[in-house]
Write a structure and sequence with these properties.
The chain is built from five helices and seven strands, in the order βαβαβαβαβαββ. By secondary structure, it is of the alpha/beta class. β1, α1 and β2 form a beta-alpha-beta unit.
C-alpha cells in the first residue's frame, strides 16, 4: 500500500505533527486511523490566545463529529530544542512504539532554522542503547521513522537551488536519507 491512499495504511500509525497551527494535517490523518500528536509552541499569538487552543478545539470538534472512529488526536506543547517536550511526546506513544511519521507543513521560514528543525526531529527518534551512531535502515524496514516536510519558500525573489540543496545537505549531514525531494527517513 502506498502512503498516499487510505487503504488502511494510516491505521495504527504513530504520527507527530510539528508546528501544527490549526492541526488540519494531523486531524486528517487521525480520521484515517492514525494516532496523532499535534505539537506547537506553548505560547500566545499576537491577540493573546494560546497557540495550542485552536488545534485542541479543532481536534475536539472533529472527535465530536465522529471523525476519529479508529484514530485519535492529542495536542501537546513542543518547543524545538526542548528535550523534556520531546520526551513527553515520545512517552505518549510508549517506549516500545516508535514514531512512524513526523510531518510538518510550512514551518520553516528561514534557513537559520533548518538545523533547529532537524535537531527537533532527531530528538523525537529514540537512540538505541546498542549503538551511539544512527543506523539507516532499508526502505522495507517498518521500524524507521519517516519525515515529510512541506515548506513554502518565503525567501524574497523565489526559491533557489542553493536554498533547497542546503536543507537536503543539512538533513543528510544529520543522518537522514533523502528518499525523494520531500521525504527523509531515519532510524536509530
Amino acid at each position: 500500500e502506498s502512503e498516499g491512499n487510505n487503504n488502511g495504511y494510516w491505521h495504527g500509525k504513530r504520527v507527530v505533527e510539528l508546528g501544527c497551527g490549526v492541526g488540519l494535517s494531523g486531524i486528517a490523518l487521525a480520521s484515517m486511523g492514525a494516532s496523532v500528536v499535534l505539537t506547537d509552541l506553548d505560547a500566545q499569538d499576537t491577540h493573546g490566545r494560546r497557540l495550542l487552543d485552536l488545534p485542541r478545539d479543532n481536534a475536539k470538534e472533529a472527535a465530536a463529529r465522529g471523525l476519529f472512529a479508529i484514530g485519535q488526536c492529542h495536542v501537546m506543547p513542543f518547543s524545538w530544542g526542548n528535550q523534556s517536550d520531546a520526551d513527553r511526546v515520545i512517552a505518549y506513544f510508549g517506549d516500545k512504539n516508535p514514531i512512524d511519521w513526523i510531518i510538518g507543513s510550512d514551518i520553516v521560514y528561514d534557513r537559520l532554522y533548518f538545523r533547529l528543525l532537524l535537531d527537533a526531529i532527531r530528538s523525537l527518534i529514540p537512540t538505541p542503547t546498542a549503538t551511539a551512531t544512527p543506523t539507516l535502515t532499508p526502505a522495507s524496514t517498518p521500524t524507521r521513522t519517516r519525515v515529510c516536510l512541506i515548506v513554502r519558500n518565503r525567501y524574497q525573489g523565489g526559491c533557489t537551488e542553493y536554498e533547497h540543496t542546503t536543507f537536503v545537505d543539512q538533513a543528510e549531514a544529520h543522518g537522514f536519507t533523502c528518499v525523494d525531494n520531500h521525504t527523509f527517513t531515519s532510524a536509530r
